[in-house]
Amino acid sequence: MITLSPIGTVQNIRKAVEDDNWGRIVSVVELEASFREEALFQIEEFSHAEIIYYFHLVEAGKIETGARHPRNNMDWPRVGIFAQRGKNRPNRLGATIVKIIKREGNQLFVQGLDAIDGTPVLDIKPVMREFLPREEVRQPEWATELMKSYW
Amino acid sequence: MITLSPIGTVQNIRKAVEDDNWGRIVSVVELEASFREEALFQIEEFSHAEIIYYFHLVEAGKIETGARHPRNNMDWPRVGIFAQRGKNRPNRLGATIVKIIKREGNQLFVQGLDAIDGTPVLDIKPVMREFLPREEVRQPEWATELMKSYW
Predict the structure, then answer these.
(1) CATH number reported for the structural domain that contains residue B144 in this entry
(2) Best of B2, B22, B114 to mutate (most A CBs within 10 Å, chain A)
(3) The model's pTM
């Protein structure tokens, strides 16, 4: 077993779990008081960061360990939980690349974080070009359809 | 506190911790026996996946919670631990986009995973185009330099 401790919390206007329309949401990731603000020093030199967070509202009994239709939409194929990004997944980890707006002390302001208010944050990583795919990205049609109203 | 359980393990030829030259390394991520292989069903419809893993060899006493020079290289600026991707970080999480080569049963073969043999894996997510940065990526010069021999 691996034990983690939140490094911060998400603050935004999304209080309820929703599937779509995350693109314009501005969130503040506020570091826990145990961190000095220098832990974020110079992050604004990057345009984007990846936020790794914990889907804290997902109940243990709802976690899928096999395969299912994404969003339970029967029009889409039944695919493995590791072949989709749904929240009801083992370890309940979310990972999303966001746009950095600004930093103020121990608060990082970001746009496009698909996590609701109160979500525990486990890590913040700067996005480097070299960590993005170095070959053309290919994905199934259902994924493109699912993402149509996401941002 | 948040408790996680590895969903799989990395197998590859890298037995020791090294900084660079990860690009050609082929790794197998083998799911834990508690998962049915259908958890990976249809992942090969995607060209890339993101692997979230745990830097299990990092000692608690070596974790940086403030700022430091990346790779302790004094030629580079002192930046916050959340403004760099080094392994000595709170919660010891790694997250890397890899190329999917193939799947065989409960084994996923990938290229470009920067994790050594025996590393515990916490999640596998398919890469969707829509989850990549939707604006131009900007990064400081030190990051571009650091990444020169990484892959």
Answers:
(1) 2.40.30.70
(2) B2
(3) 0.97
